[in-house]
Amino acid sequence: MTHHFTDQLASAVRRLASPVVVGLDPRWEQLPDAFRTSDASWEAQARAYAAFCNGVVDVVASLVPAVKI
Question: Which of 1, 2, 16, 39 could pair with 44 as two cysteines, CB 3.0-4.6 Å apart?
Answer without folding.
Answer: 39
